[in-house]
Fold this protein.
Amino acid sequence: MIERQTMTAQETADYLGVSKDLVYNMVKTGELPAVRIGRRILFRREALERWMQMQEMKGQTEVVSQTMKQRSGLSTVFRQ
């Protein structure tokens, strides 16, 4: 038997811990990787895992950027 490589919108929502409506909205805006086959929207687990890793890295980059901004603001205060 062949193992499925794709998930439905509901399975994806369950996997990500979000609502199915949010999954559809994220597909519509291009935020979430999906494959359209006819009218169906399917999600590859591998693509979702890569997407989550990218979101984690993006979040870490934002935290570092905010920390650097805060530190540069503090150094300005101390120089005065």
